[in-house]
Design goal:
This protein is mostly helical. It is built from five helices and no strands. The longest helix is centred in the middle third of the chain and has 20 residues. It is elongated and about 45 Å long.
């Protein structure tokens, strides 16, 4: 899988959480992948080194406060 495909899949899997958290997560993993590729890994190796995408999604969601997740799911704006 390419870096772009991985980030696209990650964005899709994070659908439903607040947009700012999606954007931060995508940027975080984009930077990690860039660093790993700069250090000599192939894109595929770098992606494999991150682990399972389900674990990444679970970790990301677990770090978001519950009230923020509920508001995002209900379509309410954070004040």
């Amino acid at each position: 899988m390419t870096r772009l495909k991985f980030l696209e899949l990650l964005r899709k899997r994070l659908n439903g959480i607040p947009k700012d958290d999606i954007d931060k997560t995508i940027e975080y993993y984009k930077e990690i992948l860039s660093d790993k590729v700069d250090d000599g890994m192939s894109e595929e190796e770098a992606i494999r080194s991150l682990g399972d995408i389900d674990s990444i999604v679970d970790l990301t969601i677990s770090e978001i406060p519950l009230n923020k997740l509920i508001k995002a799911r209900l379509g309410l704006n954070e004040k």
